[in-house]
Amino acid sequence: MGLKNRILGRAKRLADRFSGEFSDPAPEETQPYERPGTPNENAEVVMAKLSRPKRARPPGEKSED
User: Fold this and answer.
1) Rounded to the nearest 10 degrees, how much is the dihedral formed by the CA atoms of 8, 11, 17, 20?
2) End-to-end CA gap in the chain
3) Residue 65 has pLDDT above 60, yes or no
4) Distance CA 28, CA 33 (A)
5) Comparing C-alpha atoms, which of 6, 28, 24, 8 is closest to residue 16?
6) Residue 47 and residue 28: Cα distance in Å, rounded?
7) Strands (E), 1-65
8) Residue range 40-54, pLDDT digits in tens
9) N or C: which end of the chain has fewer CB within 10 A?
10) How far is residue 49's CA from residue 52's CA, in Å, rounded to a whole number?
11) Measured distance CA(43)–CA(62) in Å, rounded
């Protein structure tokens, strides 16, 4: 029994343990997610701007500006 067979055997046992065979049945009707609190219609949305550093130029390279 080689290493490959042992790894495959363990993977199969692990997959069997997490298979849907032992999971709870799905509910008959779905319930939408309810967010707690009240929605704020006057909320202001602000986009974030990333300030990334410029790349370091090797010595002797001219600027592109």
Assistant:
1) -100
2) 65
3) no
4) 16
5) 8
6) 41
7) none
8) 889 898 888 888 777
9) C
10) 9
11) 46
- Structure token digits, residue 3: 């290493």
Tokens of 49: 């701007």
Q: At residue 11, what is the residue type?
A: A
Helices (H) and strands (E) in the chain, counts: 1, 0
Single-letter code of the amino acid located at 48: A
CB within 8 Å of 57: residues ≥ 6 apart: 63
Which residue is listed with tokens 């046992």? 13
Tally of residues, the chain: 65
Determine the residue type at 31.
Q
Tokens matching residue 18: 């997490």
